[in-house]
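cache lookup: miss for this entity combination. No prior model stored, computing from scratch. Input as submitted by user K.M.:
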Amino acid sequence: DIQMTQSPSSVSASVGDRVTITCRASQGISSWLAWYQQKPGKAPKLLIYAASRLQSGVPSRFSGSGSGTDFTLTISSLQPEDFATYYCQQANSFPFTFGPGTKVDIK
Amino acid sequence: EVQLVESGGGLVKPGGSLRLSCAASGFTFSNAWMSWVRQAPGKGLEWVGRIKSKTDGGTTDYAAPVKGRFTISRDDSKNTLFLQMNSLKTEDTAVYYCTTRNSWYAFDIWGQGTMVTVSS
């Protein structure tokens, strides 16, 4: 199975800050990577797919980059509604696996 | 409106069975490859399994922890996905989400989830 790791596990930031989250796959997954946002008690929401493609309706302050084994999610200017947990997921091979999550909270 | 609505969760004893349903609307369910993803309390997301559309063979794949115990099926005439869970263990306690994928195998539509608690 492909293992996904994320760093940091949590980050404290202020509104307006630039936030970068890193995801690493245990083997190459080309661009088969997605990013999700999850708020407490809610279902995950797809933000980015194919490593860098913005899901329809997602604000442009979210962006994704990377290929192979190393990927990043960047929030260019953190907004109050962005405080949440973020997960990466590889879609290269079964079983699909998720990273452990990165919690973004208020500094 | 595109929507997935899960039901059927509840409290069950270890070794018991439960059947979850997921009602789909607002998209062509029969063409969709559907998955179940679960989340244990306070933990991360775990993919459970997937069923292809019938036109693509209707085959299923499962994660190792549930293989042989869980079965995914679908009724396209009722736009409904099912998850039959047998031989339940305490570690199966989680919120279960149904979801569907886009062409890049990213899960773009999610239900609200249904809670399954396995406890004596």
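stored under new cache key. The mean pLDDT of chain B is 97.
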